[in-house]
Amino acid sequence: MVKSWKAHNDAINCVKWIKELNLIGTCSYDCNVYLWAPDGTKNGSLVLGNKATAPGAALDPETAKYRRGWKVQVDKMTQYKNDLVYAERLWREVEKLDYKEMKAKALERARKKQGLSAQERAQQEAK
Question: 56 lies in which domain range?
Answer without folding.
Answer: 12-72
